[in-house]
């Protein structure tokens, strides 16, 4: 059981900064999701915590103690690597037992621990199989068992679910969360998928180019991303450029392609008339309506994509940008059809445009 703190953690490869003054405090038993595009420094961060990559500067504290000089095998960290290669010549049992053998535990103790962990990841009946005799999802669970077997105080999972099909992925999300809470392990999980991040983690971190852009509770980061970049990463589809104006009735709003768009009241107060803004809104927050009103624009359907639980439309002609409302029912493509779209002001995120 442990707390983890990164203070100004930095990694440079030559002139290139892969991780840039990262600061983070993780509470005992907390699960943090690290979200960010390819190459933003996620794996490098985990490797520094595990002790496989030496930081260029900064400090890592576990339970308040600087572990900079502690070798990897003494860090009490379980790690699931992005390329989780299992030992091909070892059975499931032997793969999982490997870490305990290194610790020179008695055979009877090893057997007991491996059996427990295999039951936790639901692989008990497959213990004599070799990796080549397992499905991709089963192999990932062996790798997870291998990361957990030494009962680490800190668990680092680098995209543990990336190769799974949609159904197994959801099952494993539930499993990982259950195991993590049951064993009360302080955990950092790396993912590319914002839905996975918000459903698994106690807090989510969005990174870009080695820096943390936002840390927050899943709902906070999902509903109130701190920048257009984070909004894009959290699945916002529609971004509009505009200028703050004062309407004839004295309300601050944002004019986008000639339309007056009202924004949430807390944002209205901070609008600077004449300044440039970016508005972001999710597909599912927009709605097709039959009568005109505030924040309602008309456009034409350019395309529609059936998503199973909804249909995502591409609408042009209302703004200079395309907007992407989604509707719950199945809609025939209806390309060229004229529609009215309402953008509820309370669901719009407002960002001042940096020059
Ligand atoms: N040993 C190394 N030498 C030089 N550059 C490196 C080294 N390891 C990583 N990098 C660079 O550092 C940056 C961060 O790499 P990292 O593996 O941490 O990214 P990531 O966020 O895990 O990406 P992905 O989502 O693709 O796994 C990348 O630009 C990468 O090319
Ligand atoms: Mg990586």
Summarize the entry for a quick read:
The protein is of the alpha+beta class and 355 residues long. Helix content is 25%, strand content 33%.
Fold and architecture overview:
With 355 residues, the chain is α+β, with helices and mostly antiparallel strands. It folds into two domains: 4-232, Rossmann fold; 236-352, OB fold (Dihydrolipoamide Acetyltransferase, E2P) (Beta Barrel). It contains nine helices and 20 strands. It has helices spanning 42-50, 92-102, 107-120, 136-148, 166-183, 194-200, 218-223, 228-233, 265-268, and strands at 4-13, 16-26, 31-36, 57-62, 65-66, 77-80, 154-158, 186-191, 203-208, 211-216, 238-246, 252-256, 259-261, 276-281, 287-289, 296-306, 311-316, 326-327, 338-342, 349-352. Helix 2 (92-102) crosses helix 3. The protein binds adenosine-5'-triphosphate and magnesium ion (MG). Magnesium ion binds at residues 42-43, 82, 158.
Estimate percent helicity.
Answer: 10-25%
Bound molecules: adenosine-5'-triphosphate, magnesium ion
- The dominant shape is elongated
Count of DSSP strands = 20
How confident is the prediction overall: mean pLDDT? 92
CATH superfamily of the largest domain: P-loop containing nucleotide triphosphate hydrolases
Largest sheet: 6 strands, mixed
Low-confidence stretches: none
Distance linking N and C termini: 46 Å
What CATH calls the topology of the largest domain is Rossmann fold
Using the coordinates above, name the CATH class of the largest domain. Alpha Beta
> Taking Cα atoms only, what radius of gyration do you get, to the nearest Å?
25 Å
What is the structural class? Answer: alpha+beta
Strand content: 25-35%
In CATH terms, what is the architecture of the largest domain?
Answer: 3-Layer(aba) Sandwich
**Widest sheet: strand order?**
6-7-8-3-9-10
Treating each run of at least 4 consecutive H or I residues as one helix, how many helices?
9
How many separate structural domains?
2
Order of helices and strands: EEEHEEEHHHEHEHEEHHEEEHEEEEEEE
